[in-house]
Amino acid sequence: MAAPTPEDDRETGSRKRAFLYISPFLALGIADVVLLLMWGLDGLWGFMILPPILFISAIGWIALRYGFV
């Protein structure tokens, strides 16, 4: 099995580019959780909201990394 070439990387996407595209959405999601907790809501709300944010960010990273988009 041959090592990936830069041409393959451009065709399917790169980990760095996928991270750069997903990081603003992840940051907004985590900021939302922090804001909810600062408003004085129960900590359980933060744990209820965080998994979907992480899941969607991971799906987006995978989609950008492997060229599903």
UniProtKB/TrEMBL annotation:
Pfam families: DUF8142. Keywords: Membrane, Transmembrane, Transmembrane helix. Residues 7-69 form the DUF8142 domain. The chain crosses the membrane at residues 18-39, 45-64. This is DUF8142 domain-containing protein. It comes from Salarchaeum japonicum.
